[in-house]
Response regulator (Brevundimonas fontaquae), 151 residues
Amino acid sequence: MRAAGPHFDILVVEDEALLVMDLEAMLEDEGHRLVAEAMSLSEVEALSLDAPPDIAFVDIQLAENSSGLDVSRLIKDRWPSTAVVFLTANPKMIPEDFLGAHGVIPKPFSRSGLLSAMRFIQQGLSDPPPRQDRPQSFIPAPAIDRAWARG
């Protein structure tokens, strides 16, 4: 994982436009930058970014009948340093190994839940393990849970 400063470049893969606007506002209020958004696998395939995003928030069910699971695989192949976090109302659809993703923020989520999860993820990526307790709004992948466990 590349060491990022206190703020992150973020890719959002979500087919609900209002949710994307809300996410962008919440994350930018915290100093993060939305570098790209996409609604489907084909839109992620078409992205041309100067640098890999630090974090990709990915819904499971996307436009064009595409799957966030396929998007996660593509992101991990194209930008191995990008941390994938699923945003979904269907966390049971995520395979046990999370396909290399860092975890999931289940929908629906509140502003405070998202920002608490974001701070936890930010700490874990910048200077592991996170200093704060894991918020209920974030379910880490088993491998991340072990790596970020505090002694």
User: Anything to note?
Assistant: The beta strands are 9-13, 33-38, 55-58, 83-88, 103-106, 139-140. Residues 9-147 form a domain with the Rossmann fold fold (CATH 3.40.50.2300). The chain has one domain: 9-147. The chain is about 35% helix and 20% strand.
